[in-house]
Write a structure and sequence with these properties.
This protein is mostly helical. It has a single domain, classed as ABC transporter involved in vitamin B12 uptake, BtuC. Helix content is 73%, strand content 2%. The strands form two sheets. Strands 1-4 form a two-stranded antiparallel ribbon. A two-stranded antiparallel ribbon has the order 2-3. The longest helix is centred in the middle third of the chain and has 28 residues.
Length: 357
């Protein structure tokens, strides 16, 4: 079989710690990379800008949130505020003449400093109390962005992103913007994949499982939780900069409200906490399921001649969307990534039936 574990004999720790030990996994990753690279050349601009690019950007942001929630076990309901800080900070830096490469890093650093500073106070509580603390952060940032004119220009103002270049490529060109977003997503993905194999990742896993037990074996829970907030906020800030320059190209306060934070949490939970594939699956479901369900409801109503009111047609896909999420969580509470892992493990031992679940 092309997908069997039998025959693999590790002779060194280096070979055992490979990200993709199976040839099929390496081939699958290579195929996905090739498809993403050639996508702008074969798909229409509508699908590239309207579907593929937002999926890549929101997957990057969800990876940052998943690093905190799945990697360190910390709840964060204000991640939309983190993205907003990165978007506004990078925009103001670019308007001051700073190159985009430095402005994006500056946006990430601004988000990391503010996010970790707030996390330092919030980490003295746990569970729902931490969730409420991060929710307060979202409210504070929303208020400041809306009511401080030099940040956003006002509650109803739209801040235009200045023209920018990345390594000489004009980000106003869709092709260049797509490849920049894809490059950032690839770097973040590789970082998250490799953190799990490092001492930092093992310390975060220990804190996630039992923080007081981690303290017994010499891991400082507060320090590593704070580092997790810093790294997660930095990724979110960079994702906010990419979102502003490569996709929105104009930002306003209403783009970063609480509903964005809730959607990001849904992406992480539905996709699978602690999984690198989870944010990609979750972002795809959260972004595309309402669109597909809306089209399906319209097609069925037209096919069977059903007289569905505009109000019902607008809300029925949302009901089906919520039911779809509940169905996924009931079928597999560990998310879509676990469903994929179950299928993968089935083929690892097929035709036998002792695959672990």
């Amino acid at each position: 079989m092309f997908y069997r574990r039998a025959g693999i004999r590790h002779t060194s720790y280096r070979s055992e710690r490979r990200l993709w030990p199976l040839p099929f996994d390496r081939g699958l990753v290579a195929a996905v990379v090739v498809l993403l690279l050639v996508a702008p050349l074969v798909v229409e601009r509508l699908y590239l800008i309207g579907y593929l690019m937002p999926w890549i950007i929101w997957s990057t942001a969800a990876l940052g949130l998943n690093f905190l929630m799945g990697g360190a076990g910390q709840i964060h309901l204000g991640y939309g505020a983190i993205i907003a800080i990165g978007a506004y900070a990078s925009t103001h830096l670019a308007r001051a003449g700073v190159p985009f490469e430095i402005a994006a890093l500056g946006g990430g650093l601004a988000s990391a400093v503010i996010g970790s500073a707030f996390g330092a106070t919030a980490l003295r509580v746990k569970g729902l109390y931490l969730a409420m603390a991060t929710l307060a952060m979202q409210s504070v940032v929303d208020f400041l962005i809306t009511h401080v004119p030099w940040i956003s220009g006002g509650g109803q103002a739209t801040l235009t992103v200045p023209p920018a270049r990345f390594l000489g490529a004009d980000l106003r060109v869709d092709l260049a913007a797509y490849y920049v977003a894809l490059s950032v997503c690839a770097v973040v993905t590789l970082f998250v994949l490799n953190v799990g194999r490092s001492s930092f990742g093992r310390a975060l896993a220990a804190v996630r499982e039992k923080d007081y037990a981690a303290a017994v074996i010499g891991v400082d829970p507060f320090r590593y939780k704070l580092l997790a907030f810093w790294v997660s906020s930095f990724i979110g800030g960079v994702a906010g900069a990419v979102l502003a320059f490569c996709y929105y190209r104009a930002i306003s306060p209403d783009q970063f409200h609480l509903d964005l934070s809730i959607q990001l949490v849904a992406m992480v939970i539905v996709g699978g906490l602690g999984s690198v594939l989870g944010p990609f699956f979750g972002a795809a479901l959260i972004l595309f399921a309402p669109i597909l369900l809306n089209q399906a409801v319209g097609a069925l109503a037209a096919a069977f001649g059903l007289g569905i009111s505009a109000d019902l047609r607008a809300h029925l896909p949302l009901v089906l969307y919520g039911a779809l999420i509940m169905g996924f969580l009931l079928a597999e509470p560990l998310g879509l990534a676990k469903i994929y892992d179950n299928v993968r493990k089935y083929f690892l031992v097929w035709p036998f039936r002792h695959a672990p679940r």
